[in-house]
Amino acid sequence: MSREGIDHALRGLRDERERISASLLELDAHQGSRLLKGARLTGETWRRWDAAQTRLGHLWRLFESYQRVLDEAGELRGRSSRPDAATLVELTGMLSGLSVEVPDGEIPLEQRTLLGPQEKRVTLDEAVALMSESYVFVAGEIGAADAAWTALLLPLEEAEEGWRETARLAHSLDGTRHPELDRLGRELTALGRLVRHDPLSLVRDGRADTSRLDRVRAVLASLRGELAGVARLRDGYAEVVAQLTAAVERVEDTERRACAAHGTVLVKIEAPRLPAPARRLGTGLRDRLTALERLREAGRWVEMAGRVAELERAAADALERAEGDLRLSTGLLDRRGELRGRLEAYRAKAARLGLAEDGTLSRLYGQAREVLWTAPCDLRGGTVAVAEYQRAIRACESETGTS
What we know:
It is built from 12 helices and 6 strands. It has a two-stranded antiparallel ribbon with strand order 1-4. α3 runs antiparallel to α5, α7 crosses α10 and α8 runs parallel beside α10. The model has no long low-confidence stretch (mean pLDDT about 90).
């Protein structure tokens, strides 16, 4: 190489060295690198970071060898403004020949001997290629760990804060331990160890798997919502009891009316298969309502919330059953009233047609009226009698129209 070529090569190599040095320092200062160095790593993350650190150590030692060659070449070039031919040959060998000694760790096993690795030298360009390969590997491992922590730490911290809030709320309600909350706490502790010490074990197909954290957060949110409902129950207890009392009273009132209607039907309607209405539904509900007060006095609000929900459902079911019993009895009485009304309407129609004195119609009317106004009333017989009376009126109406 000529003197000008030597100077040009040295300038380019020095610029390249500055860029390599800056990249290495930036890699060392990277947030992921600092986290890896400061964490107590385990499992997959420890294994991969251990391998990365080994490669990083080799990289720095190779960089030192690389720098040493450049420094020696620069010192040699600086001895004379016009170096002789021997110096130019030596500088050419340093800058383009096998001048960089490769650290032991970079020498492949198949190239070593029983006495240890033989010295291996590469060119400056080959040294840069080796350093670039190691840099890509180390940067990839640091980036993978940093990406995993970035994806996992925030949801983990949110889940942990959510658990603490939920635990404080549960303690304020009854001061006892909540089994589901304890289970979530144990799972969150295990997840926390993984996220903080082995985040790469939670990476799937290049992406951090947050599914377990997401499930814990969802269950916590649901549990926190339930406990918030318990807190609202505690704060609005008087109103809740008033509403439950009103619901129980509606059941009791409907139950009394159903029993009264059933008794009336037994007297006034012939209904041998009419089932007896349910009894003492309201009494059972009132006993359960009274039991709530004992839970309130003991401060067992979480248990009370479940009992309140059960009592609300039981009251709704009891009311529906009592209303069904009431409809069954009143329906029979209403049916009798309907048949009576229809009979009188047909009688009025017969009078308008001038058939009030017709003997057949009078007899049929009398038979129907006797059935419907006799207790107990035979509804089926009354229905048949009213229908016969109606058909007879229509027949007379048709005959009158024909004549």
